Amino acid sequence: MTFILTNQTSLINQMVSIIITDHLVWTELGPIALKEWIQWGIRCQLNPMVDVAYKLKKYYDGVVQWFQTKLTNGLLEGTNSLFQAAKRKARGYLQTRTLSP
């Protein structure tokens, strides 16, 4: 049992170091590696991989930007959701006669 825990701890430490290293390397080499993977995916014979490669090619700038900044449009989408809910509640109150009971 100790042997397994030691290996798992070692594996976790290796994974953490790989993640940190990958994050540091991503900002410099990531866009190049992504382009190479997209080219490989387009040449691949598996249709799902080809589909993913074309999607990544289409949204390449956004994918690279997200990995560099980690910014999303979640706050904007949440605000839009609130406006849409208010619009749905306000239906039927466009005319003054519908306001009176």
How would you sum up this structure, described in words?
The chain is mainly α and 101 residues long. It has one domain (2-73). The chain has four helices and no strands. The chain is elongated, with a radius of gyration of 24 Å. InterPro entries: Transpos_ISL3, Transposase_DDE. It holds the Pfam family DDE_Tnp_ISL3.
Keywords:
101 residues; mainly alpha; 4 helices; disordered N terminus; Transposase_DDE; Transpos_ISL3
Brief overview:
The chain is an all-alpha fold and 101 residues long. It contains four helices and no strands. The longest helix is centred in the first third of the chain and has 42 residues.
Element pattern in H and E: HHHH
Low-confidence stretches: 1-6
Q: Tell the overall outline.
A: elongated
The residue-averaged pLDDT reads 75
Q: Structural class of the helices, strands and pairings?
A: mainly alpha
Distance between the termini: 74 Å
Number of domains: 1
Quantity of strands, as a count: 0
Question: Helical proportion?
Answer: over 70%
Q: With helices defined by DSSP (H or I, 4 residues minimum), what is the helix count?
A: 4
Q: Report Rg.
A: 24 Å
Strand proportion, as a percent range, falls in: under 5%
Tell me the major beta sheet.
none
